[in-house]
Amino acid sequence: MKAARLPSVEAHGVESLVSRNGRAVLAAIQSRPRCSRADVARATGLSTSAVSALVTRLIAAGLLVELGANPATGGGRPSVSLGLAPRAGSVIGIHLGHADLRVVLTSLDGTLITEQRHVLDVDHEPAASLDRVARSTADLLTNADADLGRVLGLGVAVSAPVVESRQLGSPPMLLDWGGVDIGGILAERTGLPVHLGNDASLGALAEWRLGAGTGFDDVVYVMLGEGVGCGLILGGRLHTGASGMAGELGHLSVVPDGKICRCGARGCLETLVSKRALVSALAHTLGPAATVESLLDLADAGDRGALRLLADAGQVLGTALAGVCTITDPRLVVIGGDLTARPDSSNALLSAAGRALDAALPPVANHDIRIVRARLGARAEALGAALLAASRAGALLAETSEVIAAP
Ligand SMILES: [Zn+2]
Questions:
Q1: What is the C-alpha to C-alpha distance for residues 196 and 43, in angstroms, rounded to an integer?
Q2: What is the domain range of residue 252?
Q3: Cα(227) to centroid of ligand 1, in Å?
Q4: How many whole angstroms from 262 Cα to the centroid of ligand 1?
C-alpha cells in the first residue's frame, strides 16, 4: 500500500495535521515489515524530524513499539524497526474453508488469543454460512470477554480470487458464491471493517510472518487442501497480482489429456495432487469411505501404497513448481494444508517434491531452494486473515486514540 503524500503544515490546522500525520505514520508502519523511521519518512513524505516526534509520541501512547535493529546497510548505523504495539488492539480472522469454519481472535501481531472451529460446508448456502460466521464471531468475542472498543477489524480468507480486499474475483470456485457481497454483509452484521483475501495468499502471509517462512523475503507457499492453492511473498510483500489471480497453481494444466477439473479445464494440477484426488485414488483399496486421515494413517504405518501415492503427488507438485520457481526465484517453498498435517507422512511428499523440483529446474535457475513443511497447520489461513485485518487497523487505531486526535 502506498501512502499519499501529505499536504504542508501551512495548508491545514495543526490539530488535523497531527491526526492525519499520525494515521499516515501508523499506516506506513503496519504495511511494511521491519519498517524504520526513515522508511516512514520516505513513505509519507514527512520530514525525518516530524516522523521522529510522532513516533516518540505513538510509542509513549502504547500504540507503537520498537522491534529491534535492522541489519546495517552501506556501512551506516543500523535502523530500528517499528511495529504496532501488539496489545494496542485485537482483530478477528476467519477462514471459510470447504469443510469447516475457523474463527480466531489475535493481537495485532498475530498472537492467538482464542479460537473456535465449526463444521460447515461453504459449497452451499452463502446466506446461512455468513449468518454462522457472524454468530460465531459474536460468540467468540463474548466468550473471550474482549474489549469491543479495541477490536479493530475482521479479515476473511475465502477460496476464491479477491480483488482489493472487497470483491470475489471471477470465476469464483465456491459454487453459489458469485456476486455475494461477503464484506458488506459481514460489515453490517458485525459493525467491523471487513477485509477479504484469498485463502492461499493469506496462508502465505501467515507462514511468512509467523511460521516456516519467517526471515525470508521470497517465499512460495502451497496449500494442499480440497484444491491446490498457492500464495507468493515476493521482495518482502504479499503478491496477489493485477486481478487477484496470482498463484492459481492448482489450475495449471499438467496432463494435456487428463481428467476434467471443476474449473472446466482438463488435466489441472489439482486433479492429481489435491486431497480430493488422493482420497479418490485410494477408494479402490479403502472403499468409498476413505478419508485423508485414513490415507495418512496408512502412510504413518508404512503402507507402501499410501506412501507411493504421496510420493507421486510430491513428484507432480515439484515438477509444476519448477515453473513457479524459475519465474519468482524464491529461497523457500513452504508446503501446508491437510496433506502435510502430520510430519512423518508428509516427508514422503516433501522429499519427492524436492527431487522433482531440482530435476525440472533449468540449469540457469537457482537450485538452492529449500522445501519445508508449513508450521501453522490448519490455522494458517485464519491467522493470515487476522494479519490482513491488523495491517489495515492503523487508521482506526489512530482515530480511537486521544494522543493523536488531540495533540
Ligand atoms: Zn482446474
A1: 24
A2: 214-375
A3: 9
A4: 6
